[in-house]
Amino acid sequence: MKNLAVIYGGNSCERDISIITAMQALENVDRKKYNVFPIFWADKFYLPDEWSDLNKYTQSNKEMGREAVFVGKDLFVLKKNKLKKLASVDCVLLCTHGGNGENGALQGFMEVHDIPYTSAGVLASAIGMDKAMCKSFCKRLSLPVLPYGAVFEDDGEEAVQKIVARIGFPLIVKPAKQGSSIGISVCKDEIELRENLKVAFIYDKKVVIEKALTDFKEINCACIKSKDKVYPSTLEEPVGWQEFLTFEDKYMSGGGKATKSSARRIFPAELSEAESKKIQNMTQKLYCALECKGIVRCDFLVDKESGEIYLNEINTVPGSLAGYLYEDRDLKLRQIIDIIVEEAIRDYDNRKVCGYSSKVLQYYAKNNANACKLSIKNV
């Protein structure tokens, strides 16, 4: 059996959603294949005494359980100021949405500790988390995105007005590195823009200002890789909203399990075969170009008037691990977990770590050189 650590929580505004995703994963993971270690991430890592009790996560971190510590692949708990080894971890299943759990920081922690992990890598995670960077990357791939610009909090009014003059109202403002629609607002005029920029800057020092469509569909498509083949999902259309899905729309309507009959979600989305194929192809193209692994979800906007399709963003650690987008293919969350864990371990095994044996130190030691006083050139 493999030792699987499931990390969730984190420092982002999406912490609570991360907990829900982890609960779903922990309930579905195959216990015949894995010894599972739930790891809640707050100010530190914790091994919860009762991981399934949601009330525990509203209390002080000290009430969570024992502190957990990674030393390389080895997982320890801290007990009476002593480390007790629990297991050598074969893989980490990341259920961390937003913040340092999705922007490449936690992924870098896994790389440093030499642990296989299930999400996209450091670079892909960083690009995917920054909406402006992701749109720039998409443009270089000739993937269509809406007109946009990015401003920092101290850029001033002139920088904002240059973007407004270029793309015009209505606009939508978004914190560059937030998810779940947090801090997002639609602006129909200058007054709304000024007020909504203040809100967006609460959540990020960098804000994306983007052209807002007035009559459109949102379409979601997931992508997963298995044994070097990339499989896009069936498409879904979230419905029952106007300008954009709010945090509450996404997570507090119908218990998160909306169906076509509940008027919260159309699945499969009602698109032509050509439109569906185009969206799936774009999802595959971005997935491969970013060298993603695990499962991701791409969100698209379809302008009802023009029929134009725009790639809106990529989620490298999607809510519920996007398992609901494969439900029509009889692919259960348990199987998805198996696939992304196997891919994480395969990616780790295929990684090339190059070393180089140098005689530089021996040279300086032999010649009694003081390296601190030397200028090392051409490094």
Helix content: 25-40%
Q: pLDDT under 50 segments (min length 5)?
A: 254-263
Q: Strand arrangement, largest sheet? A: 6-5-4-3-2-1-7
What's the gyration radius in Å? 23 Å
How would the global form be characterised?
globular
Please explain how this structure is put together.
By secondary structure, this protein is of the alpha+beta class. It is built from ten helices and 17 strands. The protein has a seven-stranded mixed sheet with strand order 6-5-4-3-2-1-7, covered by helices on one side. A four-stranded antiparallel sheet has the order 8-11-9-10, covered by helices on one side. A four-stranded antiparallel sheet has the order 13-12-16-17.
Task: List the keywords.
single chain, 379 residues, alpha+beta, 7-stranded mixed β-sheet, 4-stranded antiparallel β-sheet, 10 helices, 17 strands, 30% helix, 26% strand
